UniProtKB/TrEMBL annotation:
Organism encoding this protein: [Collinsella] massiliensis
GO biological-process terms attached to the record: regulation of cell shape
Coiled-coil intervals: 63-93
Organism phylogeny: Bacteria, Bacillati, Actinomycetota, Coriobacteriia, Coriobacteriales
Family according to the record: Belongs to the MreC family.
Record's function text: Involved in formation and maintenance of cell shape.
Regions of compositional bias (Acidic residues) in chain numbering: 285-295
Keywords annotated in UniProt: Cell shape, Coiled coil
Protein name: Cell shape-determining protein MreC
């Protein structure tokens, strides 16, 4: 049998691809391929059942080891996800600190008020860390409140949405100024903005720096609606706070002092008492349009004069 196999192999090599042996092999492959494929399809369920049976018959020690390994992997995934989220929040805080050149110290929120009459949070640093009453507190989105109580190791922060909170604020684009006041229902309103000021939905509200407590220019929120009641002297302006969810403010910055650039200037104070407040929106564009209109009117007049002269001739 071995000699026959050697002879067939020798003839197959010598005869090339067009020989009898190669032709016979092709016929056999053509006939047997469907049979082999059908056999594998039929055997697949039985192989799966065999694998299941093997798993079911695994020893309790093996199953226990696998469960422990899965639990360990899940714990590591959760730990890495939390570390990544913390790193992203801290990076955002550092970005705010760098952008506004804030002199500040970091703290973590460890609790919040449990009643419906006040909106406060507790942070894990206090007077022993240099914190004091009235210091502003912010997260990566902007100002969230102000310290109202302090102990050696903790401090209480009144949130901007508390009805006792009031912050000197202004419209970023037009510099129209008012007081951002918390409401009993947890919303914000920009009060005392006169109806001759330029304010519209979508405007960004920032701190004005008046009063010397909050640094000038930090985000506070966005105008969500502007209403002008009949015969009223001031708009009713509703503002969506820059940070709506305190549970996302795990890490915060406490602003410990202000630089001269972060305080309101004499011009800012004068502007707050001016009427109308702030400046008109897109003032340069308005002036350009007026010049274009004057030029167009002048051109129309020249054409009319030329027409009259022609008629006289």
């Amino acid at each position: 049998m071995c000699v026959i196999s050697v002879l067939l192999l020798t003839f197959s090599i010598r005869e090339g691809d067009a020989g009898i042996i190669h032709a016979a092999r092709s016929v056999v492959m053509t006939v047997t391929t469907p049979v082999r494929y059908l056999g594998s399809v039929i055997a697949a369920p039985f192989n799966a059942v065999g694998n299941i049976a093997s798993n079911l018959t695994a020893s309790p020690a093996t199953l226990s080891d696998l469960e422990a390994e899965n639990e360990e992997l899940r714990a590591k995934v959760a730990e890495l996800s939390e570390a990544q989220a913390t790193a992203e929040r801290l990076e955002s805080l550092l970005g705010l600190q760098s952008t506004y050149s804030l002199q500040s110290t970091a703290a973590r929120i460890i609790g919040e008020s449990g009643d419906a009459w006040s909106r406060t949070v507790t942070i894990d640093k206090g007077s022993a860390d240099g914190l004091a009453i009235n210091m502003p507190v912010c997260n990566a989105a902007g100002i969230i409140g102000q310290i109202i109580e302090v102990s050696p190791t903790t401090a209480t922060v009144r949130l901007v949405t508390d009805e006792n909170s009031g912050i000197s604020a202004m419209v970023q684009s037009t510099r129209a100024q008012g007081i951002l006041q918390g409401q009993p229902d947890g919303t914000l309103r920009l009060e005392y903005v006169t109806v001759d000021s330029d304010v519209k939905e979508g405007d960004i509200i920032v701190s004005s720096g008046l009063g010397g407590v909050y640094p000038k220019g930090l985000p506070l929120g966005v105008v969500s609606s502007v209403d002008r009641p009949d015969n009223a002297s001031y708009y009713t302006i509703v503002v969506t706070p820059a940070s709506s969810e305190t549970e996302n403010n795990e890490e915060v910055l406490v602003i410990t002092s202000l630089t001269d650039e972060q305080r309101a200037t004499d011009d800012d104070v004068a502007s707050s008492n001016a009427s109308p407040q702030g400046t008109a929106r897109d003032e340069s564009s308005t002036q350009d349009d007026a010049q274009d209109d004057d030029a167009a009117a002048s051109g129309d007049g020249s054409s009319s004069d030329d027409g009259a002269t022609d008629a006289g001739e």
